[in-house]
Amino acid sequence: MKKLIVSPAPHIHGKESTRGLMRDVIIALSPSLLVSIYFFGFSAIKLAFVGAITCVLVEYAIQKYIIKAKPSIKDYSAALTGLLLALNLPPNSPWWIVFIGSLVAIGIAKMSFGGLGQNLFNPALVGRVFLLISFPVIMTDWTTPVSWFREGIDASSGATALSIVKEGLSKGMTMDQIFAEHNFSYAEMLFSKIGGSVGEVSALALLVGLVYLLIRRVIRPHIPLSILGSIAVLSGVFWLLNPDHNPDPIFTLLTGGILMGSIFMATDYVTSPMSTKGMVIYGIGIGVLTVLIRNFGAYPEGISFAILIMNATVPLLNNFFKPVRFGKEVRNG
Amino acid sequence: MSRTFSIGGIHPHDFKISANAAIEDFPLVDIAYIPVSQHLGAPAEPVVAKGDKVQTGQLIAKASGFISANIHSSVSGSVLSIEMLPDLSGNLIQHIVIKVEGDEWVESIDTSSDIVRDIKLESKEIIAKIAEAGIVGLGGAAFPTHIKLSPPPNKKAEYLIINGAECEPYLTSDYRLMVESPEQILIGTKIMMKALGVKKSYVGIEENKPAAIKKMKSIAAKGYKEIKIVSLKKRYPQGGEKQLIDAIVHREVPSMGLPIDTGVVVHNVGTALAVYEAVQKNKPLIDGVVTVTGKCMSEQRNFRLRVGTTFDRIMFAIGGFPKDAVKLINGGPMMGKAVSRMEAASVKSTSALLLLTEDETKRGEEGNCIRCSKCVYACPMGLEPYLLNRLSRAGRVEDLELNAVHDCIECGCCFYSCPAHIPLLDTIRLSKAQVLRIIRSRPKK
Amino acid sequence: MTTTIFFTIVSLTILGSILALILYFVAQKFKVVEDPRIDDVETLLPGANCGGCGFAGCRAYAEACVKAESLDALFCPVGGNEVMKSVASYLGMAVAEKTPQIAVVRCNGNCDSRPKTNHYDGYSSCAVMSSLYSGDTACSYGCLGQGDCVVVCNFNAIFMDPRTGLPEVDEDKCTACGACVKACPKFIIELRNKGVKNRRIYVSCVNKDKGGVARKACFVACTGCTKCQKVCPFDAITITNNLAYIDYNKCKLCRKCVSECPTRAIWEVNFPVRVPRKAESITVEQK
How far apart are CA A97 and CA A51, in angstroms? Predict the structure, then answer.
């Protein structure tokens, strides 16, 4: 007689796996990666490659030699962190920048908390912010490298649209003057922005990624929509109050990594809330903080800091905003 | 438009591969092993002794205590012994072992196939008859039906819901019943409505069973106007009592409450048929329709199986234990129980035997929780399985109670949807039992 | 420049003083008056916080000791008699000496003697497994081998022996705190007297099935044959529900029952090796 297998119910399981989810996020990132390879050529490939490899190796080394845990690099999560970090750097960054960033992201932000699922802050963002504070010159040098495919992008445009606006406003120029001087157009921002980090060249490519994530049910729309919505509303209010000195909502949404942050960074499973209510509040918090940092802070963009600040509130949000329990408050009629 | 419940749920592939296999009578066995505890509550007391001759349908064990049910012989022959034998999980239970000699039925049982439509008995008599026939809920929990039909005096039933959702993948026994004996089910429903004194009842059927919906609707239209056939969306756990009430009459059973608290009583279609047979035909509950299915089997079967047939015997009837199968499940794949003893016998509430291969049933390697919150959205009770699992492993009983682990209906949606393959339900089920024990041990206010 | 330094020092000093004052008053206002003896008793305790005494931790136990009228109902199994003596002398109370105990695993159905009849593929926990079914062998009383006892042990005194699949108690480390006894869902582990020179005799089986059923499931099961009971000169052995039990208070370690047991379910521990008796097919591994 054959020995039967006995286990508690349920006896069948869904097809989803951690590995599959992470792979889906990487697939969702690939349009942005392809577009940036088109614009920046070898430089983009180099950054993405160094980032992913370093993260995987660092995670493996820490698991194997320091915390003596079972290596879990096969789940793609480290590779995803490296890729996200690389896509958030200026295209002309040297390779060692992404190497150091990866060390910080995996070593400090992820593994020192206990590895996958335990970290409080988004590792890629911690890496990026660490670099931004430690190497401000490199991290704000938006010079476009020469691409294989597309030569002749104005190599002198050493600033993002957002920092141009910030600088212009501080000189006392109005929005219209800045726009006129630099020939900004929304179409250009949608497809190929003037300056910016590797991954956010094309807003359209990022939106394609969002649609893919939503269709595959990897993420739910609550976080990205509440971030984008609250940014649009709040920056709209500022814009209506003073259209000369505040950029309009569409400009705000399309610049400074808002899309990258709201689609790929803020939706990171580990560092975002669990319940629907928590997600919406988390998203609104990020949106509000971003607009406040942009309008009143020293940095031209603010979503990295906003997400990290809101990351810290996630345990609280999880505690306060529980899902609606069936049968707790009876709604019989 | 199809109705459904409000929160959570999953959509597993339904694999109703045995849907077209007509119900066939299982051949008579040589020896029947009839356990005296086939229901929730106290085991029944045997009223026969070794060497006694029994007829099919004869009372062989009497209900003891308030929550208990009578047991009748499913075969005719002589009692070989009354002894402790393992049930499907290896726990020892008293069995009445009967050597089968012919198939002689008790005279009062009407074995013809004529449909008796007139309901002559009054409410009290119906309930007494159901108790006498030893009918238990055939949806899985095997709770004695006559108790569910006599709600406490301070609570009034408003609706009767007949559960034909059969939301578990693979199972088709309820479907076959609805297709093959729809009118009997509707008469059974009417009998239960009379017993409860309710004016309106619903039969909920998931929309992946269009033939059943059509057939039931056409017959209900012909003379059972007070019974409404409701089409439900295909979604698991639609057939859960609380979810079904939510879906059909939009009422929420309160935490730690019973369906009757919302004025609803829920019964399974199998129970409705058993009630019809008991009240109109005098036939006690001695058999049931059992789906024997699995992708590894060449032929899918739906048997009318007498209580007390061993799993070994059933496997013999389908041509031996399939080579690829590694797991035999009594029930559906989401909530059924894995069989560890092939020598155990079928009971009243056995509704399916499912054979799964290693590929189908394999548990993935457990990884770290990535807090994706898929379990939270899958939970139909609005709980946070990831949190309950963590608290359970840390043994934090008070926090578990605060987070309402006792509300868990053990549907398995959380574990099914977990991408890290964490056995969430294993730990939660354990904590639920622990917390329920603590709650029940508290003095009542 | 100097003024800057001066003002910095002055302002920080003032700020620090003010905060210190606030802290002082708050601490005074919310001071919890506690018996200072609790601290002293706590230092005498082993500090394992194992809960073997029945309290939440050593501090709670110390509190209970200080409040208690007598120390009779309070015993720290980890510290044993020595610690109890010192606590008693500090508090000026008397304490009765207790016989040292040790956890004993009463199942010897290893992989050979108790063949597996099915595979368990669930969460690795005896509690989960036992709530699901009777176990992966035909014996529904025996050890499930998932190691709940190992998990709860605070002293690393119990470990799974990979050869037998059964838990093994480390005699030097075991403090008889009783955590494993509570954790075992099959009630296999028992606290027994450590015995003279650590020598113990016990029935290593808890199977209550009838002899034939038990023997079929496991070669080394106690069948309840009553041979040991008959041979025992001290009436230390009782048989209830087809299961023999040796009362450790009555047993004089004469070892007569050990050689009498036909299934070798009775174990002797830490006795000198004796001349092997006549050929017996089953060899029992002993420490």
Answer: 9
* Residue B345 tokens, joined: 């016998």
Backbone angles phi, psi at A173, to 5 degrees: -80, 160
Q: Are strands B200-206 and B227-232 parallel, antiparallel or unpaired?
A: parallel
- Number of helices and strands (H, E) in chain C? 10, 9
What SS3 state is found at B177? helix
* Residue C166 · residue C107 · CB < 8 Å: yes
Q: Indicate whether B287 and B192 sit together in one domain.
A: yes
Distances (CA, A) of B101 to A138, B75, C28: 93, 8, 89
Which pLDDT does position A214 carry in this prediction?
A: 95
Query: Which of B142, B140, B167 lies closest to B416, judged by CA?
Result: B167
Low-confidence residues of chain B, pLDDT below 70? 445
Which of these three, B319, B334, B362, is where a domain ends? Answer: B362
Q: 3-state DSSP helix/strand/coil percent for chain B, to nearest 5? A: 30, 20, 50
pLDDT at residue C6 in the model:
92
pLDDT computed for residue A159 by the predictor: 61
**What is the count of residue pairs from B and C with beta carbons less than 8 Å apart?**
41
When the pLDDT of each residue in chain B is averaged and rounded to a whole number, the result is 91
pTM for the structure as a whole: 0.88
Q: How far apart are CA B383 and CA B386, in angstroms?
A: 9
Q: Are strands B23-25 and B301-306 parallel, antiparallel or unpaired?
A: parallel
Q: How far apart (Å, rounded) are the C-alpha atoms in residues B62 and B77?
A: 19
Unique residue bearing structure tokens 């622990």: B434
Residue B71 in tokens = 């047991």
Could you tell me which chains touch chain B, where touching means 3 or more CB pairs under 8 A?
A, C
Instruction: Tell me the per-residue pLDDT of C97-148, one tens digit each, with 9 for 90 and over.
Output: 888 889 999 999 888 889 888 889 889 999 999 999 988 888 889 999 999 9
For residue C69, give the amino acid letter.
E
Cis previous bond, A10, omega within 30: yes
Q: B255 to chain C nearest CA, in Å?
A: 24
CA distance A8 to chain C (A): 6
Q: What is the CATH number of the domain that holds B287?
A: 3.40.50.11540
Question: Is the peptide bond between B43 and the residue preceding it cis, with omega within 30 degrees of 0?
Answer: no
Percent of chain A with pLDDT over 90: 50
Reference C127, options C164, C109, C152, C104; nearest CA is C152
Least trusted range by pLDDT, from A31-45, A165-179, B192-206: A165-179
Residue B421 lies in a domain: yes
Shared-domain flag, residues B302 and B402: no
The percentage of residues in chain A with a pLDDT greater than 70, rounded to a whole number, is 88
Q: What are the chain B neighbours of C121 within 8 Å (beta carbons)?
A: 363
Burial class (CB in 10 A: 0-12, 13-18, 19+), B221: exposed
Bridge-based pairing of strands C118-120 and A4-6 is parallel
In a domain, B241, yes or no: yes
Angle, helix A42-61 to helix A77-87, in steps of 10 degrees: 140
Instruction: Name the one residue in this structure whose structure tokens are 């707790």.
Output: A328
**Pair B215, B137 in one domain:** yes
Closest to B23 measured CA to CA, from B189, B138, B173? B173
Domains and CATH numbers, chain C: 36-91 (1.10.15.40), 101-269 (3.30.70.20)
Per the structure, the count of domains in chain B is 2
Contacts of A4 in chain C (CB under 8 A): 118-119
Residue A150 half-sphere exposure toward CB, CA atoms < 13 A: 13
In a domain, B61, yes or no: no
What is the complex's ipTM, to 2 decimals?
Answer: 0.88
pLDDT class of C279 with cuts at 50, 70, 90: very low
- From the candidates B327, B328, B340, B389, which should be mutated to test the interface with C, based on the most C CB atoms within 10 A? B340
CA-CA distances (angstroms) from residue A293 to A159, A297, A302, B24?
19, 4, 5, 73
Domain boundary among B331, B362, B393: B362
CA dihedral over B378, B384, B390, B394, signed as positive or negative: negative
